[in-house]
UniProtKB/TrEMBL annotation:
This is Trehalose 6-phosphate phosphatase. Removes the phosphate from trehalose 6-phosphate to produce free trehalose. It comes from Nonomuraea soli. It comes from the Bacteria. InterPro entries: HAD-like_sf, HAD_sf, OTSB-like, Trehalose_PPase. Gene3D superfamilies: HAD superfamily/HAD-like (3.40.50.1000), Trehalose-6-phosphate phosphatase related protein, domain 2 (3.30.70.1020). It catalyses: alpha,alpha-trehalose 6-phosphate + H2O = alpha,alpha-trehalose + phosphate.
Amino acid sequence: MTPTPKTEAGKAGLEAILTDPSGTLIGLDFDGTLAPIVEDPAAARAHPAVAGTLARLRARVGDIVIITGRPGQDLVGGLPVLGHYGLEQWADGELHAPPEHPGVEVARKALAAMELPPGVRVEDKGHSVAVHTRQAADPAGALRALDGPLRELAHANGLAAEPGRFVLELRPPGMDKGVALRAYVERTGSRSVLYVGDDLGDLKAFDAVEELRAAGIPGVTVASSSDEVTELAARADLVVAGPDGVVDLLASLCERIASGAA
Ligand SMILES: O=P(O)(O)OC[C@H]1O[C@H](O[C@H]2O[C@H](CO)[C@@H](O)[C@H](O)[C@H]2O)[C@H](O)[C@@H](O)[C@@H]1O
């Protein structure tokens, strides 16, 4: 059964999706939403039911897009991916990306020269560098201690500091998941939108859904909840329990659309 949104705007958004699914864009975050959180970023994999569920859903809605902080070259179940918070954009069957921001190379070198606490890992993503503290003995303490120096490094090199789940990422400014989602809605001519996310970077996509609603495009914000980040659940129209809950929600949406139930 599809859970009922807790807000009136969310209920109206879900109703619009069920009434006109071919006009719907489903926007999905990856880590913590489609993929359970794991210690090592390189070991993250989509929930085993994601590929099948999205394949079925794809046949029933207008569009599905993954919007992630990760690089966008990987496809999840053949779906378009907007990588690096939308910096890498999918258009006409090709992935487009700007040249690397010069500040990233400076930050990369500075991080290589820094003595980082044990367990702190640097993920080099090409267009950005992310400093992860999940594997430190005290992940929250390590992140707090690094926050100031990393923000200074970002600022000194014209980069934005993007906080996330036990991570602070130094990345080019000027793009976020909200800008990416709005542009994708415009490009696809979507008439409704549902966005699911779990981390602070997804709040911009929630902003975008709310702005789209104000402009007459109904939508639903969904939080894939965790104890690590509570801001999304506090704001979302609908809260589900992590990737298991996301898969259940998408599967139930699929069934309701297939049964023609508005
Ligand atoms: O926008 P997303 O798809 O959610 O990507 C955000 C960041 O996710 C990854 O880090 C997070 O997941 C890791 C694997 O579960 C976890 O170890 C880490 O603590 C999380 O912060 C990814 O590594 C980052 O590059 C993404 O920006």
